[in-house]
Design brief:
Elements lengths: L3 E6 L3 H9 L4 E10 L8 E8 L6 H10 L16 E4 L2 H14 L10 E4 L2 E4 L7 H4 L4 H17 L6
Parallel strand pairs: 4-5
Antiparallel strand pairs: 1-3, 1-4, 2-3, 2-6
């Protein structure tokens, strides 16, 4: 089985990691910081998702990503929490553009999520990796991650492990 990789940035990478770790077909989630080039050369919190495309479609992953962070609003922490989908090659870039165009009609406001080439990745320190799995009852997890997982249970239950 060959895995496909895509990367997502949005809110806190602890939250993003927990969301994607809960999905069928996702084999690995690497939490850390991603940088691209030019105006996106600074590192921003993100995850790299390795998944089996035969078990979960890229469109589902992107839709979940858009619904589990503020993908339509600009805020003062956008450099640290860049709303982005990071691609690994030009074919993937084209597919992501097409999927975002298709999903835009599901949103009342314009999706501001950027489509950016992944250039550099720095993993989080070991103490922060698998944060939700290690700390599900911490106040941060209860306040920020539990609602995202509840949304998945309501809207994407067939895609949950």
């Amino acid at each position: 089985m060959e895995l496909t990789k895509i990367a997502f940035g949005g809110g806190c990478h602890w939250c993003t990691e927990a969301v994607f770790q809960s999905l069928k077909g996702v084999k690995n989630v690497a939490q850390g910081f991603i940088a691209s080039k030019n105006k996106n050369a600074t590192f921003s919190e993100a995850v790299i998702v390795a998944f089996d495309a035969a078990k979960i479609d890229l469109k589902i992953l992107i839709e979940i990503h858009l619904l589990t962070h503020k993908s339509t609003s600009k805020h003062s922490f956008r450099n640290k929490y860049r709303s982005a989908i990071y691609f690994f090659n030009t074919n993937q870039q084209k597919k992501v553009i097409q999927i975002l165009d298709e999903l835009q009609s599901n949103f009342n406001e314009k999706i501001i999520t950027k489509i950016i080439e992944l250039k550099k990745f720095k993993p989080s320190s070991e103490q922060f990796q698998n944060y939700y799995q290690k700390n599900p009852n911490k106040p941060f997890c209860e306040k920020y991650i539990h609602p995202k997982l509840a949304l998945l249970t309501r809207e994407f239950s067939k895609n949950l492990k």
